[in-house]
Structures are given as C-alpha cells and as structure tokens.
C-alpha cells in the first residue's frame, strides 16, 4: 500500500489557501506544504501581523510560502518579511 506522500505529489504546484492565516485554513496550508506545494495565503481580514505569523509558522515547517500579496482593488501590498 502506498502512503499519502507517494499518492499526492504537489511539487511545482501552487496552493492558494483562503482563510490561511489561522484555524482550519492554516492547518490545510500546513498539510499542503508537507506535500511540497508552494503556499499562498489569503485572509478576509487585513490583519498583517496574523498573516506574518502564519507565514513564519509555515516557513519553520519548511513550507515554501509566498510572502508577497495583493489587496482588494488590485493594489500591491509589500511582501511580508
């Protein structure tokens, strides 16, 4: 029997996770990151601090996280650091 890691290979794939800054969305982002997907987090509320903490938590788990982003209306937001 094959493992989940053998069945699902998300290398070279990007996963957009809505609600990814906390709770279930963050857990989903972690699971996708464990499968080698590049993670892009999206949050409804513009809480930059929470998004940074989520991105840092994912990075500590060796997940590839896109730390740039866009705000509503198409205005670019500077990348998280």
Give the strand order, joined by hyphens, for the main sheet.
Answer: 1-2-3
**Global morphology:** elongated
For the termini, the CA-CA separation is 41 Å
Largest sheet: 3 strands, parallel
For the residues shown, what is the average pLDDT? Answer: 77
Whole-number radius of gyration? 13 Å
Percent strand equals 15-25%
Structural class: alpha/beta
Helical proportion?
25-40%
Helix-strand sequence: HEHEHEEE
Low-confidence stretches: 72-81
Instruction: Tally the helices.
Output: 3
Layout of helices and strands:
Elements: H1 4-7, E1 14-18, H2 23-34, E2 38-42, H3 48-60, E3 64-66, E4 69-70, E5 76-77
Parallel strand pairs: 1-2, 2-3
Antiparallel strand pairs: 4-5
Write a concise keyword list for the protein shown above.
21% strand, 81 residues, alpha/beta, 3-stranded parallel beta sheet, 36% helix, 5 strands, two-stranded antiparallel ribbon
């Amino acid at each position: 029997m094959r493992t989940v890691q053998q069945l699902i290979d998300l290398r070279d794939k990007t996963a957009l996770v809505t609600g990814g800054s906390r709770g279930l969305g963050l857990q989903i982002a972690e699971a996708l990151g464990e499968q080698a997907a590049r993670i892009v987090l999206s949050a409804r509320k513009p809480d930059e601090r929470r998004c940074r903490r989520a991105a840092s938590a994912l990075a500590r788990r060796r997940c590839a996280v896109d730390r740039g982003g866009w705000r509503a209306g198409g205005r670019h937001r500077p990348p998280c650091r």
